[in-house]
Amino acid sequence: MVQRFFDEVVLPKKKHTPRPVALCVDITFFGSFGVVVFRDEMKKENLWWSFCAQEWTLYYERGKNELLKLGYTFTSVTADGLPGLPAVFSGIPLQYCHFHAKKNITKYLTKNPKTDAGVALLALMNSIHLYTQMSFVAALLAWRDLHMSFL
């Protein structure tokens, strides 16, 4: 039903200014259909979007190719953990989205853990944005070592 309203909307042609971008990509679903969006997160600008029926890598491949044809280059890509995305964005630094990481961890951990290990892991997860890859791995290993008897 909502799809019909989207089909009736006529948008002005997007004016592109190709440049190097730190790309953020994701698909959001609204019931039976989804929208894939490629966004320059630094400039808060949606660069490309398309409707989709499933979260398939072909939509990400299509968006990447469209932007490359327009002259964009990618300094990095931030995305959810869809397994095929490293291949789609091969050669471009790929980061797992903090929102999706937290959502995935919370699914297994809960938002109110009862154990010391769980409380410490939740605190680590909630501060993930403060870490580099190396410092996060070090903090995670320290957490593991501290809670080895629990594990």
Structure characterization notes:
The structure is a single chain. The protein is of the alpha/beta class and 151 residues long. It has 2 domains: 2-96, 2-Layer Sandwich (Nucleotidyltransferase, domain 5), CATH 3.30.420.10; 101-146, no CATH class. Helices cover 41% and strands 25% of the residues. It contains 6 helices and 5 strands. It has a 5-stranded mixed β-sheet. α4 (98-109) packs antiparallel against α5 and α5 runs antiparallel to α6. The N and C termini lie far apart (49 Å).
Pick out its properties.
2 domains; Nucleotidyltransferase, domain 5; alpha/beta; 5-stranded mixed sheet; 6 helices
In short:
The protein is α/β, with parallel strands linked by helices and 151 residues long.
